[in-house]
Amino acid sequence: MKILIENGTYDCHNAGDLSMLKVCIDRVHELFPTSEIYTVTESPEKLLNVSDKTKAISFLTGRLLWLQPRNIFGPVHKLLPFNDKIIDDIELTFKRKFPLISLQIIKWRYRRDPNKKKEVDNFICTLRSFDLVILSGGGYITDSFENHASKILETLILADRFAIPFYLFGQGIGPIFSEKLENIIRIILPKAKLIALRERLKGPELLEKLGVNKENLVITGDDAIEIARSRKNESEAHSLGLNIRFASYMGVTSDKANIIVSTAENYAAETGAEIIPVPISWHKDENDLAQTSKLLKNFNNKDSENIETIEGLISQIDKCRIIITTSYHAAVFALANGRTVIALIASEYYVDKFRGLADMFGSGMQMIDLKNDNWEQAYKEALKSYWLNFNDYKAGLDDASIKQIAKSKQAYSKLSHART
């Protein structure tokens, strides 16, 4: 059997998505040890450093050409008495229903550009060669990442058209207000064999509203938990872990970030603790380590390169008693290791993510809404409380992690019913 794994980390620069991807690859390989497993990526070498159980594949250029508007009707849209959006929607519907006819038309239109013709042909022919398509975990099916989500969902529509079954694991769905994204979900996700969600507060209700049968939904928690716990050290920790990210979907301002850091530094001075970064994103334009370290007064960057790996992240968290974070997966890695978390939020996207995560673990995480007037006081109180009561939460967090790993494995076991 030939299996394709789609994912949320084409450049392998996000520790959370990469951890979920590794778990997905390992579990699929365990279930189908003689199958060929391919993973979509832009960074073959980095991917293969994470797992030797998969082969790298890239059809991203061909997919982009396939989805490019007006590559079937072309200038005809100028002659028709409709607006451009209607023509584009008709063309996309035609591609979805008649992909092989559409492919021939697009190849004809690219007949003077052999590279484009080859790329789009490769995308369709490669996809058709698979027996099973899997989406590994991530929070990318949401308005904040509409472009990426749409491309992946369009790939699933094609897979379904070619009678290829597909499964989704470790998914965080929403928030979604985009009509475009809602429409794509209505078309394709009700046809999924299984959708495993990492939280139960928002995702199930949203998917059911968009036509997914609740019988095809399971709640598992985040797949990265297994990776986060795989090298857990039981030694006493005496550091404060810090993650600050500035991105459009975060809503964190520089003024509030400075207050977050200075408050942590003051408390660290009182307790004799060290503040260390716990970066999740390694993207050039969204680099947690660079953004966090710039805010710290006494950060030694000599070990920066080693920190930006999954093992480096686990090693950093192992030193921490509390994690202060604006990003989701820093909290996942912390809670999975029995560490308490102060989650600082300033956008609806992250409110949903952190609430869902807190619900799955039950305790050991406090959310501080940066839009509230009293957030600074609440933050200071959370710091003191979690520092002094560090060991009170460990047993409950460990138990929650173990249960979520078991549920996630159980969900993956349903792949054994996939076509062979």
UniProtKB/TrEMBL annotation:
It comes from the Bacteria. Residues 14-344 form the Polysaccharide pyruvyl transferase domain. This is Polysaccharide pyruvyl transferase domain-containing protein. The lineage of its organism: Bacteria, Pseudomonadati, Pseudomonadota, Gammaproteobacteria, Thiotrichales.
